[in-house]
Design goal:
315 residues; elongated; alpha/beta; five-stranded mixed sheet
Length: 315
């Protein structure tokens, strides 16, 4: 039988905050307590578990020990369970309430996040979703560290410690100005694009995806511009500076001062990119996480799946 714990949930909360800040003074400021209160709580916790959790530095810096990092994972899990128990006690009926941290790849959140959050607010008014936008690699680490309960990411280089729920597949397509000679084609092969200027999303996974597509068909694409936003891509394409290979379905309306655009499917048999909802392997999904997942499944099941080929207006 496990021994009765001598530490408190407050001590665990202080532990998590110090670990995230790597600084006792900063952690105390965020917790609205004194620096000495945090220092004493951490020392008492270390004494309770007979383990050194932090290495202290001058100027109140604090770095987790190897044992401290392992203990932190369990502490986060216990605090989450304690929060769920508190929610359960506050609302013994079968409602969904409480906070849920959801990550989203910053390049794609504008395509669906607002619709999903609106649906959540309508069905589960007591569920508070905190949206965290970041890069794919950062979000994976956030899930593993317990800072995100779920995250919308692509199934590219997924960490083995993650499980995922498939939501949508997005085949690649070509975005062109309506003035491009290639716009007259109903579909385009990669070899047709070899000598055309490519406007590439210069982010690790997006860049690698396009490069892999070209490698599959043994085509060498000519990169003219490297950008990091869909708005810049649309502006450059609209003004006739080149084409782009995308998966998400952007507006075909003319950018300011430019021409309308067209979307054309790639005739080559090429792999799509897949949007998934990821969470930690072995995690016990909370009621609120399960409810959020079901809303997402319903949203993407009814979503329009094909790019707006052949049209100039918005979706």
């Amino acid at each position: 039988m496990a021994s009765r714990p001598n530490f408190t949930l407050k001590q665990l909360r202080y532990l998590v905050e110090v670990a995230e800040c790597s600084n006792i003074t900063e952690a105390a400021r965020k917790l609205y307590v004194t620096q000495s209160a945090v220092s004493v709580a951490i020392s008492d916790l270390e004494e309770c578990v007979s383990t050194k959790l932090f290495i202290r530095h001058r100027a109140k810096g604090a770095q987790l020990t190897a044992d401290g990092a392992k203990f932190l994972i369990e502490a986060r899990d216990l605090l989450q369970r304690a929060g769920e128990l508190q929610d359960f006690g506050a609302e013994l009926q079968h409602s969904v309430s409480g906070a849920l941290n959801v990550g989203c790849y910053f390049m794609i959140s504008s395509f669906f996040a607002a619709s999903i959050l609106s649906r959540i607010r309508e069905i589960y008014p007591n569920l508070r979703v905190r949206l965290i936008e970041d890069r794919l690699d950062v979000l994976q680490q956030a899930i593993l560290a317990g800072r995100c309960d779920l995250a919308f990411i692509y199934d590219v280089d997924l960490h083995p410690g993650l499980r995922h729920i498939p939501l949508m597949s997005y085949p690649p397509y070509v975005l062109l100005s309506e003035t491009s000679p290639l716009a007259k084609k109903r579909s385009i092969r990669l070899r047709d694009l070899a000598k055309e200027p490519l406007i590439m999303i210069d982010l690790p996974h997006s860049r690698t995806y396009v490069q892999n597509l070209a490698a599959l068909r043994r085509v060498e694409l000519t990169v003219a511009y490297r950008v990091s936003s869909f708005d810049t891509i649309r502006s450059l394409v609209s003004h006739g500076h080149g084409f782009s290979i995308l998966n998400q379905h952007v507006s075909l309306a003319a950018a300011q001062g430019g021409k309308a655009m067209v979307a054309r499917p790639l005739a080559d048999d090429l792999p799509p990119v897949k949007l998934v909802l990821a969470y930690t392997e072995g995690a016990r999904l909370s009621k609120r996480a399960s409810a959020f997942i079901e809303v997402c499944r319903a949203h993407f099941a009814s979503a329009y799946r094909q790019p707006h080929f052949g049209h100039r207006s918005d979706m």
